[in-house]
UniProtKB/TrEMBL annotation:
The keyword Cell cycle applies. Interacts with MinD and FtsZ. It holds the Pfam family MinC_C. Cell division inhibitor that blocks the formation of polar Z ring septums. Rapidly oscillates between the poles of the cell to destabilize FtsZ filaments that have formed before they mature into polar Z rings. Prevents FtsZ polymerization. The keyword Transport does not apply. Residues 132-222 form the Septum formation inhibitor MinC C-terminal domain. This is Probable septum site-determining protein MinC. InterPro entries: CAP/MinC_C, MinC, MinC_C_sf, Septum_form_inhib_MinC_C. Belongs to the MinC family. Keywords: Cell cycle, Cell division, Septation.
Length: 240
């Protein structure tokens, strides 16, 4: 059996490892629509099967086509380590799941939406989560009745508010108000949290002035009646 560029290498459990046709050592790793096998084990099987069929180690860069898989930060980190241990580098994730995009951003991995288009309406599994693509500029105000995930920056002079959590995949430098209907458990999370003003329910605070911690997203929450800013938890507080 001859294995060449473009040949699809399929393990028994349904994941596909597809060699790049250009022969540059780049591969597509396509996850099945659903599977009971844990993700790292599923990926390990795909690599093993690909190497067996190709009769050589599979190395190079990987585009992970994750579809609707909901992959958290810790799970994605484990997957990244699994690939690195086999000489593979996860460079891009294609996903239709906002949670997976957030996790990718937390690890500095490039992510993209299918057909290069982010959803403009709430994701079905999370009916109270609104996803908005694009930077908010001075004078803009984005307000939602649930939680909001912004794929972009909030510039000085812009405002973002939500009855639930405010999640910013980018720099938050304007004004953010989470729990605007009185939810004291709401959080504000951003890749860089340097706002002019933060509000959670009735609590108000100014953003920190120092440099953000390297490699961490940041979150603001109410602790003992006051807003406290810390490195974000491994799982962002998305609803659902």
């Amino acid at each position: 059996m001859e294995i060449g560029p473009g040949t699809e290498l399929e393990p028994a459990r349904g994941a596909l490892l597809v060699a790049d046709e250009s022969g540059r050592g780049s591969h597509r790793l396509v996850l099945p629509a659903s599977c009971q096998t844990p993700l790292p084990a599923l990926v390990q099987q795909a690599i093993d099967s690909g190497a067996l069929l190709a009769n050589r180690p599979i190395e190079g860069q990987v585009l992970l086509e994750a579809g609707a898989w909901r992959i958290g930060l810790s799970q994605l980190g484990e997957l990244q380590r699994t690939l690195n241990g086999r000489g593979l580098e996860l460079v891009t994730i294609c996903s239709s799941q906002p949670h997976t995009h957030v996790a990718a951003a937390g690890l500095g991995i490039l992510s993209q939406w299918p057909n290069s288009a982010a959803p403009t309406s709430p994701a079905k599994p999370d009916s109270d989560l609104q996803v908005h693509q694009g930077t908010l500029r001075s004078g803009d105000h984005l307000e939602t009745s649930g939680s909001v995930l912004l794929l972009g920056d909030v510039n000085p002079g812009a405002r973002i508010s939500a009855a639930g959590h405010v999640l910013v995949w980018g720099r938050l430098r304007g004004v953010a108000h989470a729990g605007c209907q009185g939810d004291n458990f709401a959080r504000i999370v951003a890749l860089q949290l340097r706002p002019l003003q933060l509000r959670i329910a009735g609590a108000v605070a100014r953003g920190p002035e120092g440099a953000p911690p390297a490699g961490f997203a940041e979150e603001a929450r109410i602790v003992a009646g006051a807003i406290q800013i810390d490195p974000a938890q491994p799982v962002w507080p998305l609803s659902g």
